[in-house]
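Let us practice reading a record.
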Amino acid sequence: MAVPFLKNPGLYEHYANLDQKGKIMAEYIWIDGDGEIRAKTTTLDKKVKDVKELKEWNFDGSSTNQAEGGNSDVYLRPAAFYPDPFRGGDNIIVIAECWNNDGTPNKTNHRHSCAKSMQQAASHKPWFGIEQEYTLFDIDNKPYGWPKGGFPGPQGPYYCGVGAGKVYARDIIEAHYKACLYAGVNISGINAEVMPSQWEFQVGPCEGIKMGDDMLMARFLLLRVAEDWGVKVSFHPKAVPGDWNGAGCHTNYSTEAMRKEGGMKAIEAAIEKLSKRHSEHIAVYGTDNDQRLTGKHETGHIGQFSSGVANRGASIRIPRHVAAQGFGYLEDRRPASNIDAYQVTDIMVQTTLLL
């Protein structure tokens, strides 16, 4: 794979194509104490066929805001793995849970709780689809492609736009799409968003814990692809202040009962339960979400729960076709672009199915 920002990408190609002599590279990724993604790589002796074949590893948690310096070892327990689109071959990327040395989940390990909830709710077959919005910046922290020292024209022509001056960095977005497909992430689509240099990809439908895993992997792949172009990715819900759209992670959710004929009753029952725990959900629906959920720019207000059919200004939107056919799914429009997908899917299942 060429690396565009390198002065000599062909040189990189030479090393990338060297024979690994039967060895496998396994890149472990995890979520750190600030919600960012970290990674380190180890060498394996053979191709991995099952996650149980992967070793437990560790890292210095004092350098990632996950442990104190005097007791800094944090353990990485493999939970899932995907083919590596950057190194190719039998090389893999491993999603790992973080555990403290006393046997308790690290403060950043929301996957552990989520997995338990999904197991308890497995008979309901909870499905999720998350719409990840994000913003691209150049190396100088300016929105990618925006005029230096100025601003592009007002929002309008950029959403699902085509053509120079309307879309920016399509090559990065296409590369990320292909990387996700190669890795086996259930990516279902992409589109340019309302603000210039803002994009969205959708992951799902995924059942249970697979939603969090695929979203974490998709984010990691995006960061790595953008790294090759020397471009930064922001998941901040209000990446550019002013009269510009914020960025969310609209979360589509359904159970088997919702997807069957007559499922509107189950959808309405779930919305009623969600309305009673609005503050608990907002607490895990992303940092700085108050900057986005203002009641403007296609959002509901952070302090008020609302729902409606085809209403993009509501907390919970029922798609028009769902209301017309009487079954399907609901869309929670409150989650910010910087959510931990494990936390969001966990609390949705807890609120609607387990409490």
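A brief commentary: The first helix runs from residue 9 to 16.
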